[in-house]
């Protein structure tokens, strides 16, 4: 079949040892840019997200600057590592590690949503497998690899898990109020006609 096709490139989005090309961090040097087992994500708008360190601050960066810094996430002190993805609305998903209370977790938009201490559909999580294995779509669905334990037999098995973000109760309340306001506005415009 021959060699794979040559891809055309538009230049480097981010480059270790170089300065940020644009945005709020323009001119600051990228000290470290994670590669290999650390995944990176790109959305439909061409924005990328990747684990990096700039000016001694580690975290997730896009071309526009720092998305979120390593540090305390929901009371857990740790750092981002492994897969990461960003959707068209700018929501992101990433793995998160610390070595005190949890080994591995998944963070969505700055909130820790799952750790290796949790269970999925009644199966305990043995390991969250993060080598480039997180993906987030525009509907808030994300997938990841996990090694699970069947609590009845103590056997382990690998699975690709699909999860869906559900709005917080306050978000649902605000959404309900918005729908109610829209219905009232429609009713008023019909009465005025």
Outline:
This protein has 193 residues and is mostly beta strands. The chain has one helix and 15 strands.
Describe the protein:
With 193 residues, the chain is mainly beta. The chain is 12% helix and 42% strand. The chain has 1 helix and 15 strands; from the N terminus they run E-E-E-E-E-E-E-E-E-E-E-E-E-E-E-H.
- N→C terminal distance: 68 Å
Mean pLDDT: 78
Strand proportion, as a percent range, falls in 35-45%
Structural class: mainly beta
Total helical segments: 1
- Low-pLDDT ranges: 169-191
Order of helices and strands: EEEEEEEEEEEEEEEH
Q: What is Rg?
A: 21 Å
Query: What helical percentage do the residues reach?
Result: 10-25%
Main β sheet profile: 5 strands, antiparallel
User: Globular, elongated, flat, extended or rod-shaped: what is the shape?
Assistant: elongated
Number of beta strands: 15
């Amino acid at each position: 079949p021959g060699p794979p096709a040559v891809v055309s490139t538009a230049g480097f989005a981010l480059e270790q040892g170089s300065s940020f090309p644009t945005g709020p961090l323009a001119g600051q040097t990228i000290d470290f840019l994670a590669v290999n087992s650390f995944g990176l994500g790109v959305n439909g708008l061409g924005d990328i997200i990747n684990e990096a360190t700039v000016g001694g601050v580690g975290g997730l960066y896009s071309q526009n600057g720092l998305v979120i810094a390593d540090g305390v996430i929901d009371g857990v002190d740790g750092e981002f590592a492994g897969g990461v993805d960003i959707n068209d609305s700018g929501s992101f998903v990433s793995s998160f590690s610390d070595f005190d209370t949890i080994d591995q977790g998944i963070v969505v938009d700055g909130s820790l949503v799952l750790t290796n201490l949790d269970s999925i559909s009644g199966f305990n999580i043995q390991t969250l497998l993060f080598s480039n294995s997180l993906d987030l779509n525009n509907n808030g669905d994300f997938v990841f690899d996990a090694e699970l334990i069947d609590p009845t037999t103590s056997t382990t098995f690998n699975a690709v898990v699909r999860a869906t973000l559900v709005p917080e109760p306050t978000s649902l309340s605000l959404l309900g109020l918005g729908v109610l306001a829209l219905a009232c506005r429609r009713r008023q415009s019909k009465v005025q006609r």
